[in-house]
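Sample entry (179 residues):
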Amino acid sequence: MSGDRVDAYLSELNRELRMRWTPSARFLEETRGHLTDAIAAGERKGLSREEAEREALARFGSPGVVAARFAAERSRRLEWLMLAPALLTGLAIAWVDARPHWDDAGITAGMLLIGSAALGLGVTRRAWLIAVGVGVWIPLHMIVHANGFGSAAASLLVLLFPLAGAYAGMGVRRLVVRG
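Predicted structure, serialized as tokens:
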């Protein structure tokens, strides 16, 4: 009976993590270790095993809150890691767009939208970071090669496509996680 409460807690925590797309066997094992240590400390203070378990679980927090904190911390790190693929995706699209015989703005716009939407699936906040990473290259190319900001200012409208895509991707992720 003594480990049943901890096992039930870890099972609920695992379910909460999966609902947030952040399953982590390592985090569950670390949680088990912390709970075991807290229970042992409670027993050393003179509490019964059952009281020590109850106190340790109460201090650790509900599985939903713990999972939400873990998911938030993981997503913060992931958002900054997603910047590298966003920059590479945008650079590849801009490279194709800058080819002398390429003249298809619709495909370029579509690739900016789709690329940023795919990357937006990986973030829960800061979709603008993905959008800027994907979309900055074409306006930058225009500024450098147009010798000024005149027509390049109009190319900033290009950023609307990755913004729409990144926020759409992030929205789809939120709908799936909630659903």
